[in-house]
Amino acid sequence: MSEFIEAGKIISAHSFKGEVKIQSWCDSAEFLTRFKVFYLDGNGENCLNINKIRVSNEKEKLLIVSFDEIDSEEKAVMLRNKVIYIKKQDANLSEGTFFISDLTGLPVFDFDDKNKKYGVLSDIFHNGASDVYVITTDKKDKNNKDVDVLIPNVPAFIKKINLIDGIFITPIEGMFDE
Questions:
Q1: pTM of the entire structure?
Q2: What SS3 state is found at 112?
Q3: What integer pLDDT is reported at residue 67 of this predicted model?
Q4: How far apart are CA 78 and CA 70, in angstroms?
Q5: Confidence at residue 42, expressed as pLDDT on a 0 to 100 scale
Q6: Which of 19, 143, 35, 21 is nearest to 71 (CA)?
Q7: In 103-113, which positions are buried (b, 16+ CB within 10 angstroms) versus exposed (e)?
């Protein structure tokens, strides 16, 4: 697991003072207001110290940010289309909250029969009501492609998540049948 994760993208300069507009890739734009530093690479070498940060549009997940190192519109324009990263340890997530990158690849087991493995979590997407977990099974379809099963991330299905042991679910009957 990487120490740094992608958190958004600088989409434009915002003012002659060097502010930039950032599109947040997090659950909310507000989440990024907790940070004091953003990174321009996934290894932590290129950091930008946040001077001021505010949510511009929560619905569109937009932020306006000024950095100590950027003091002109010309410098801000040079950051356009740069991906910003955050350091995971700076995130201070609440209990039961995880980064998608930490969950992807975890094995998925039956909650009642811990020896029954359904597959591996291969992706997560949001459908409007909740996140949906994509579980890739070891089964193949008639075209020899992996069979995926979609499970909503709701307590009725997702019973326990442990970053070491895996994800434990209670599927409905027939969900993993061919």
A1: 0.76
A2: coil
A3: 96
A4: 10
A5: 82
A6: 19
A7: beebebbbeee
